[in-house]
Amino acid sequence: MSKPSSEPLELFDHSATRASTRVRELREQIERHNRLYYEHAAPEISDYEFDALLRELAELENAHPELASEDSPTRRVGGKPLEEFSSAAHIVPMQSLDNTYSPEELREFVTRIRKLAEERSIHFTIEPKVDGVAISLLYENGRLVRAATRGDGVTGDDVTQNVLTISNIPHRLRGEAPSQIEIRGEVYLPKAIFARLNAERDEEGLPPFANPRNAAAGSIKQLDPAVTASRKLAAVFYGTGVWTGDQPAIGREMFATLQKWGLPISERILEGSDEDSVNAAVQEMGELRHDFAYETDGAVVKLDSLAMRREFGSTAKAPRWAIAYKYEPERAETKLLDITIQVGRTGTLTPVAELQPVFVSGSTVSRATLHNEEEIQRKDIRIGDTVLIEKAGEVIPAVVEVKKELRNGSERAFEMPQHCPSCGAPVSKDGVAWKCTSHTCGAQVRRRIEHFASKQAMDIEGLGEALVAQLVEAGLLNGISDIYRLDRKSLLNLERMGEKSATNLLAAIAESRSKPLWRLLHGLGIPHIGVTSARDLANRFHTLDALASATEETLLGIHSIGEIMATAIHTWFQNQENRALLESLRTAGLNFGEADTTAAPTDQRLQDTIWVLTGTLSISREEASEMIRRLGGKVTGSVSKKTTHLLAGDDAGSKLDKARELGVPVLDDAAFRELCG
Predict the structure, then answer these.
(1) Which of 194, 258, 260, 537 has the fewest Cβ atoms within 10 angstroms?
(2) From 129, 302, 435, 515, the catalytic residue
(3) What is the model's pTM?
């Protein structure tokens, strides 16, 4: 994907001799990219490049009206329903938005609206443009009866069962609601979940999602709702379709009503009344957007008066009273110095771009994952190339384009090694991934131990990446169970290991023996089992032995476990090497769940409370979250009307502002410790 050109988009060849051919070419290209974007969630070009194609087609059709067509991509929304889902017709069609990358065109939009208003006072709202999947919820008498994707704008896919798994979408609206209402919004994958999901897909040799929007699209259109549930999608709402009964007069009142019903809305909605204030608000939103949990690619400017919206109407494709201002992608140019190989805990060989350090999206980047060999070949990435770097989802550094015109002939093609760079064992291809064939590979051993000891798993403080590598190199760790055979004497023989460090490490290891079952389940590295699934399994089976003897049918009875996950869990426990590992851990005295069930807390003082954590706390967030859960509370990631408490440490940010705005009680460290006893 290339950096948006500084040349004006109007420089197209509109000559009659080429117009017909070019129109046909553009329509074919746009249709293909629409299918990739809407139906396969696998775009090949950036939004900017797609918009440029659409803009050129519109220019040609305006210049040559005889070439215009009712089924032109310029006159309709892009997707069509998938065959796997039943169709759902929208009562009021879902339109897309006209968009611009130009402050001048944004000013022209505001000026045009002011003229249409004919001296009447006007007001605009400026909202973040969430880069997710458009969704329409149909509520009847306050109850959610159907959820549908936008599709072609008239008919979409019925994804009700999948949407019911999204935790911040209410199944029933609070308070009084119309007898029938369509509520429009975006389903998105939080940026933090996106980073974790792509890391897991890399490890399993699966193709990564290009961005959170793709991941959300792939998740909402899963045939198995359990898979959708495991992705931890969320939603935000901004508009309505059909609405029986009395309606608000302005958009701001509509937002307040949605919020009153329990529907999440954007945490920041700015305002403007003329060209200057609207442009200033759009630029301010561009600075704020990096703090949002979801990825945004622009700001949406809407006329606030709902009566004027109805009066001004729309074209066949888009409303006349709204426009989307798209931000140019934040990218940086740098040199690809080398491509190295990282071996994961399952043996997957992942190529990594070693970059000349460059600052992009708020931090300095020196490495970026290249995912797999096919990705390198598709983009024709070579060692020595000048490349453009972008943070996918504003989280993961990625090489998005090669500046091939800057090549001088010294660049080298990359070839995947035929032997594991860590242990020298042969590698074999598994789908798109190359994997080391040795289970005793040092790199795999290190990654498995690092994962087991990580904060999200057994949380063994002090057993980090550097020390794990040192212990494996010294022959003291050859697997997870060896952690519990470490002794003071062998530790003190290591370089840079002092008495105090050895004592602290052994104490942390001893403490890990009593950690709850879900941490052990996550730490074992069972395919597809993350923190949430591990908690669900522990809550359902209570002991590891009960889980180990469960059939696939029994596993499928758990809401968050689908067929693929059930097969993976059952297969893992049948493996003899894994059984031997579990027996070693049993001998080492680890809690297999019995301690959880016998010591189940009776103190539920935080029952029915919903907490959000922010800022730097005196204990880790995971410890604080675990304390809340043990006392009957629930922890979520974002502040909403449902939030009952905010735990705020030092340097608390936008979540604290949101909590104060909503009147959510805020506790500091000391008050939290006192509350929890």
Answers:
(1) 260
(2) 129
(3) 0.53
